[in-house]
Amino acid sequence: METSRKSFAESWQSFQFRPVVHGSSRACQPWRCQSGAAVAATTEKVHHAKTTKPQAQPERRKPKTGILMLNMGGPETLGEVQDFLQRLFLDRDLMTLPIQNKLAPFIAKRRTPKIQEQYRRIGGGSPIKMWTSKQGEGMVKLLDELSPATAPHKYYIGFRYVHPLTEEAIEEMERDGLERAIAFTQYPQYSCSTTGSSLNAIYRYYNEVGQKPTM
Predict the structure, then answer these.
(1) Residue 128 CA to chain centroid, in angstroms?
(2) Which residues pair with 155 in a beta bridge?
(3) 8 A C-beta contact, residue 62 and residue 178
(4) Under a CB-based contact definition with an 8 Å cutoff, are residues 152 and 61 in contact?
(5) How far apart are CA 151 and CA 63, in angstroms?
(6) Which of 17, 23, 109, 143 could be disulfide-bonded to 181 (CB atoms 3.0-4.6 Å)?
(7) CB of 125 within 8 A of CB of 84?
(8) Distance separating alpha carbons of residues 101 and 32, to the nearest angstrom
(9) Per-residue pLDDT of the chain (215 residues; tens, 9 = 90+)
(10) With b meaning 16 or more CB within 10 Å and e meaning fewer, what string describes 30-41?
(11) Interacting residues of 179 by C-beta distance below 8 A, sequence separation 6+
(12) DSSP annotation of 165
């Protein structure tokens, strides 16, 4: 057991947060989709409602290592459904549509009542943020025990289509002054439309602000 813990700690310390920024070649971006959506993604501006409210977590020491938990997210309330759908239909890694900027809001508005009814049947919203928070709390507690050299650890939730958005999570990570960070996908498999989309969001964020990660 001690050998396994040591091996895990050594492997964990080797991870590094290295999104590719200006001047990168496509070959250096293995998550790039080959459909043409990736080309559009590299020039797409980062559009999100910025927030300065940090993600609520128990009081801890200043974090040294951050784990960005990537997922698509889900609306917590019925009122968030339309914005969720609009961001989803605007994602060119997920789908490409003609005049997508105009068509996506139209489709989202048409689909909202039906999707709201589906969420109403399961309690009025998605439980994914709640469960991601519980997983994150358990994860950082275990990591602090297994790898004290990289502790304290802090998790950050980065959703693609609802708050906290991936871009908002990155901003909080930069403000926290982390020494290192790991992008940890929560999708069960790799796909350009899931993990690829989340990694592209990280790429676009740093490409838009024109700076390299400080962590």
Answers:
(1) 13
(2) 67
(3) no
(4) yes
(5) 7
(6) 17
(7) no
(8) 21
(9) 555 555 555 555 555 555 433 333 333 344 555 444 443 443 344 444 445 566 666 566 899 999 999 999 999 999 999 999 999 999 999 999 999 999 999 999 999 999 999 999 999 999 999 999 999 999 999 999 999 999 999 999 999 999 999 999 999 999 999 999 999 999 998 899 999 999 999 999 999 999 899 99
(10) ebbbeeebbeeb
(11) 64, 65, 215
(12) B
The pair of three-digit structure tokens given for residue 2, joined into one six-digit string: 């001690």
Can you tell me which residue has the tokens 């930069």?
174
**Can you read off the two tokens belonging to residue 12?**
């964990």
Q: CATH number for 30-40+60-209: choose from 3.10.129.10, 3.40.50.300, 3.40.50.1400, 3.30.450.40.
A: 3.40.50.1400
What length does the chain have? 215
Question: Which amino acid makes up residue 4?
Answer: S
The one-letter code for the residue type at 162 is V
Distance in angstroms (rounded) separating the CA atoms of residues 59 and 56: 9
Helix, strand, coil % in the chain, rounded to nearest 5: 50, 10, 40
SS (H, E, C) 84-121: HHHHHHHCCCCCCCCCHHHHHHHHHHHHHHHHHHHHHH
Whether the full predicted model's pTM is greater than 0.85, yes or no, is no
Listed residue (143, 173, 146, 180) closest to 157, CA to CA? 173
The span from the CA of 161 to the CA of 91, in Å, is: 9
